[in-house]
Write a structure and sequence with these properties.
Layout: H1 2-17, E1 46-53, E2 56-64, H2 68-87, E3 95-100, E4 103-108, E5 111-115, H3 118-122, H4 128-148, H5 152-191, H6 193-197, H7 206-244, H8 251-260, H9 262-295, H10 304-337, H11 343-359, H12 361-375, E6 384-387, E7 390-397, E8 401-405, E9 411-415, E10 422-424, E11 430-438, H13 444-460, E12 473-481, E13 484-493, H14 498-515, H15 532-548
Antiparallel strand pairs: 1-2, 3-4, 4-5, 6-7, 6-10, 7-8, 8-9, 11-13, 12-13
Helix pairs in contact: 1-5, 5-7, 7-9, 9-10, 13-14
Length: about 550
């Protein structure tokens, strides 16, 4: 790989060193404008532009705004053709200033270049003749230097410098690459189980703390990776940009890069900076959340699952708000970098903001109520809640809306301002509320004893014991119904475990009832008939049948 790199560098040097003495100059390129001298007011205003030679500014010309580009192109074309003839010949350079219609006219080797007018002189506040002499001196120096830079000796010296710059770029790139690999390896070692076991945390707080710690490491690792990539890109881009300025044939490419790549590069740098700052802010949010948990400020509870739900909700909402703020700041920074005056935009945005706030008061109510929901811990992502006649698992919670997924898989979106009363079915603990029907002919004491034994046996099993928080409560006969006596059973469980516990308990109780021959009663109804005619008809029918027999 090293030999391949050196061979490539050698071929570059040889190719640059063997360039002939006379080489065609790059065609006319877009010209950079002087922002301080350009006005967008009217087409009759006077503006100025630079005339370039080999990517270097030589002198400025003046003209009306509607004529400046046409005149600039004519002068650049004349200078390009004159330079080509001068570089390929052994004729000495001869620049003359002649008079035509009382205006100085510049000739180079008896070839017309341009006419100096009053607008050219107005740029530096001198007369036309003095301005023509200044342009003559600048052209003399620029053309002689351009021809000298096309000599083989100069090309070879610049090639040597180019080789040195390339070597420096490669060395810096390799150093950054090794530093990046070492940093990534250190990050992977910190995430390894051996490193994690060396810093044990309390048993209850460890899952949440480790989760936040891992998220923080991922965000910081992403920030480091992007910064390393930005550094590598900056090294190679800067090196190539500098190398382009070493040779007269490529120096004009610098102008092209500045003219065409200024806006995308500026926008790209701002976007990358906002991205890096956003990921770094995510790491700070995770670290802040971990600090709150460790100090017991965020949630005073021993249930780490509940703490995890609230931490994920708090962290997610905070990150969303931070992202929106940074995107707004990035947009303003991009406009400033592009030279756009943001003061009128801010004033207009203020008026628009007032109008929007008046027209969308419900959004403000949503945001306020959403903030209170998060701060008061009414519910969090992962809870099961019921709001009026709908309910389900909370999948998304932000300052504006709450999204639920019901038992049928439907996604229900509720504006936070519409949530007045909410029932949280998984906050801190849950309860399986069971109503068991028993026939009136059943021995009630035996039935209660059987129901209690099944519940206690299930509570003592290793699998179900962590999910059942307290000893099941057999409340007794709760009601007399059409199916029989209703016995109420309460089982306190972990959040969201009440349905699993209830299903398993019903299954076990059915098996136990079948084993002792005690079935689940069916609905029973007694019908009393008080119709006298119907009773007489039934009596007469039975008497007539008895007489016939």
């Amino acid at each position: 790989m090293v030999l391949k790199s050196w061979s490539i560098l050698g071929s570059i040097v040889i190719s640059l060193g063997t360039v002939p003495k006379v080489t065609a100059q790059l065609p006319i390129l877009p010209y950079l404008q002087n922002p301080s001298n350009v006005s967008n007011a009217a087409a009759t205003i006077t503006v100025s532009e630079w005339v370039y030679l080999d990517g270097r500014p030589v002198f400025r010309i003046g003209a009306l705004k509607i004529d400046i580009q046409r005149r600039l192109e004519n002068i650049q074309t004349n200078l390009y053709q004159i330079g080509e003839d001068y570089y390929s010949s052994n004729v000495e350079l001869n620049i003359e200033v002649r008079k035509r219609n009382d205006l100085p006219v510049i000739y180079i080797n008896d070839k017309y270049l341009m006419t100096v007018n009053s607008l050219d002189a107005k740029i530096v506040d001198i007369d036309e003749s003095s301005r023509a002499n200044q342009i003559q001196i600048n052209l003399q120096q620029s053309l002689e230097r351009a021809k000298q830079e096309r000599q083989s000796s100069y090309i070879i010296n610049q090639s040597k410098i180019t080789l040195g710059v390339i070597i420096v770029i490669i060395i810096c790139s390799v150093i950054i690459y090794r530093w990046q690999r070492r940093s990534l390896q250190n990050g992977l070692e910190e995430k390894s189980p051996e490193h994690e076991s060396a810093n044990p945390e309390p048993e209850i707080k460890q899952p949440i703390a480790e989760q936040l710690k891992e998220q923080k490491k991922e965000h910081l690792l992403e920030v480091k990776t992007r910064l390393f990539q930005l550094t590598q890109t900056g090294i190679w881009s800067s090196g190539i940009f500098i190398i382009l300025g070493f040779f007269p044939y490529t120096r004009a490419l610098q102008l092209m890069i500045l003219a065409f790549a200024r806006i995308p590069v500026t926008v790209g740098i701002v976007l990358l900076g906002i991205y890096v700052v956003t990921r770094f802010s995510y790491a700070l949010i995770d670290d802040f959340s971990k600090t709150l948990i460790s100090g017991g400020f965020l949630l005073r509870t021993e249930n780490f699952e509940r703490m995890q739900l609230r931490v994920s909700t708090f962290s997610g909402v905070t990150k969303s708000i931070t992202t929106l703020i940074l995107l707004g700041v990035g947009t303003l920074m991009t406009l400033i970098a592009l030279g756009i005056d943001i003061v009128p935009l801010l004033a207009g945005a203020g008026l628009i903001g007032v109008a929007i706030s008046l027209a969308s008061q419900s959004l403000i109510k949503d945001a306020i109520n959403g903030f209170l929901i998060i701060v008061e811990d009414q519910y969090a992502v992962g809870d099961v809640i019921a709001v009026e006649d709908v309910g389900g698992l909370v999948e998304n919670l932000n300052l504006r809306i709450t999204q639920l997924r019901d038992a049928e898989g439907r996604l229900i979106t509720i504006p936070n301002s519409e949530i007045k009363v909410v029932a949280n079915l998984s906050s801190h603990w849950s309860r399986a509320d069971l109503t068991i029907p028993v026939s009136y002919q059943t021995d009630i004491d035996c039935a209660l004893k059987l129901i209690q034994d099944v519940a206690y046996q299930m509570n003592e099993e290793e699998f179900w014991q962590p999910q059942i928080l307290e000893t099941p409560s057999i409340l007794g006969i709760d009601n007399f119904g059409d199916r029989g006596m209703m016995i109420r059973v309460w089982i306190k469980t972990q959040p969201l475990k009440q349905w699993d516990v209830a299903r398993e308990y019903r299954r076990r109780l059915k098996i136990a009832l079948d084993a002792v021959g005690m079935g689940i009663p069916l609905p029973q109804r007694s019908i009393w008939v008080n119709d006298t005619q119907l009773l007489n008809y039934q009596h007469n029918s039975s008497h007539s049948k008895h007489s016939e027999s």
